[in-house]
């Protein structure tokens, strides 16, 4: 049977960065890997970030979004059926940051997927500098993602201190308590700098498994205020971009903005940017797509567009 892993995590946690390292571990062992980008949005820039993994032993697939949750589940299952015929040793799924983890388990228990796939690991990525003032909806999604995790892997630990990491772990416990999730979170925390991972670290992560715990499931993805807004062909420039995004995330008149990401081209060079309230990165890229994606709650779409075009 084909092993299938889920790499989940809240918006901006660093799933794609971890995924690249995790996939490379299996590729170095000669395994054939299929990556499935499973997003609720209609545009997936993470596919571009994973392009350098493409090879005869690594293929990228995507579930097209832009539809309701039921439609998305059907597309997800259909894609897994087609991937089950491709001879992979392992399929690794990276979903949206507001993914309903129950969809993963429900789909893989249906025929014919239950005869082709074996659930391997559920790894949840959490930013070590997790924002403390998340909404109630955000905390419930966070609890749902850690409920099934075999490991909770903290990202960006090298950029913060012990007190902040401990506050993040306390936040996870509080979110679990709110959702009536009874789980020993301390026992599955992995808080090592990703730049220093060893063969033994990867072996541990690759065999962490998953767990099933009951919790209060408050919302599905169709029932929340979460929204993803796409802007194509906005005239973005390097100069002043960070300052504008900082304003976007700090001014409540734009809504509650949790993440902004995308690509733009300037002087024949493509740039990729990724921002949360705590971090902003800008990187040169060999390829790109002129797109600006804003994710959050109660987004004032027209106001955001006007701000970035004036």
Quick summary:
With 310 residues, the chain is an alpha/beta fold.
The secondary-structure element order is EHEHEHEHHEHEHEHEHEEEEH
**Taking Cα atoms only, what radius of gyration do you get, to the nearest Å?**
19 Å
CATH-derived topology of the largest domain: Rossmann fold
The spatial strand order of the largest sheet comes to 3-2-4-1-5-6-7
Counting DSSP H or I runs of 4 or more residues, the number of helices is 10
CATH class bucket of the largest domain? Alpha Beta
Question: Secondary structure elements and their pairing?
Answer:
Elements: E1 2-9, H1 15-28, E2 33-38, H2 46-49, E3 58-63, H3 69-83, E4 90-95, H4 101-108, H5 113-116, E5 117-127, H6 136-147, E6 151-155, H7 162-178, E7 189-190, H8 199-205, E8 226-232, H9 241-250, E9 256-266, E10 269-275, E11 280-285, E12 291-297, H10 301-309
Parallel strand pairs: 1-4, 1-5, 2-3, 2-4, 5-6, 6-7
Antiparallel strand pairs: 8-12, 9-10, 9-12, 10-11
Helix pairs in contact: 6-7
């Amino acid at each position: 049977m084909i092993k299938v892993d889920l790499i989940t995590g809240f918006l901006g946690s660093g799933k794609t960065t971890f995924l690249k390292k995790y996939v490379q571990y299996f590729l170095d062992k000669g395994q054939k890997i299929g990556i499935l980008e499973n997003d609720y949005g209609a545009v997936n820039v993470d596919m571009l970030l994973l392009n350098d993994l493409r090879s005869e032993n690594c293929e990228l697939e995507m579930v097209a979004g832009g539809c309701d949750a039921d439609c998305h589940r059907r597309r997800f299952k259909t894609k897994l059926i087609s991937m089950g015929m491709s001879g992979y040793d392992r399929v690794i799924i990276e979903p949206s940051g507001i993914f309903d983890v129950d969809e993963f388990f429900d789909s893989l228990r249906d025929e014919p997927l239950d005869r082709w796939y074996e659930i391997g690991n559920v790894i949840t990525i959490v930013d070590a500098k997790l924002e403390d003032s998340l909404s109630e909806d955000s905390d419930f999604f966070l609890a749902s993602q850690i409920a099934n995790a075999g490991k909770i892997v903290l990202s960006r630990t090298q950029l913060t201190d012990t007190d902040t990491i401990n506050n993040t772990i306390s936040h996870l416990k509080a979110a679990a308590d709110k959702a009536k999730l009874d789980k020993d979170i301390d026992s599955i925390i992995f808080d090592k700098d990703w730049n220093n991972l060893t063969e033994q670290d990867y072996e541990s992560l690759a065999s962490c498994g998953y767990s099933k715990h009951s919790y209060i499931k408050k919302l599905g993805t169709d029932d929340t205020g979460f929204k993803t807004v796409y802007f194509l062909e906005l005239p973005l420039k390097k100069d002043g971009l960070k300052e504008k995004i900082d304003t976007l995330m700090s001014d409540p008149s734009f809504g509650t903005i949790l993440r902004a990401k995308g690509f733009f081209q300037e002087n024949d060079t493509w740039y990729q940017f990724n921002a949360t309230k705590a971090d902003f990165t800008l990187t040169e890229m060999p390829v790109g797509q002129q797109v600006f994606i804003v994710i959050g709650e109660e987004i004032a779409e027209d106001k955001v567009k006007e701000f970035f075009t004036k």
